[in-house]
Amino acid sequence: MNLAVNIDHVATLREARGGMEPDPVHAAVLAELAGASGIVCHLREDRRHVNDRDVRVLRDVLTTKLDLEMAATPEIIAIALEIVPDLVTLVPEKREELTTEGGLAVHGNEDYLSEVTKAFHERGILVSLFIEPEPMQIDAAVQCGVDIIELHTGTYANARSRAGVKIQFERIRAAAMYAANAELVVTAGHGLDLRNLEAICRIPEIEEVSIGHALVSRALFVGFEQAVREYVAAVS
Question: What is the CATH number of domain 2-235?
Answer without folding.
Answer: 3.20.20.70
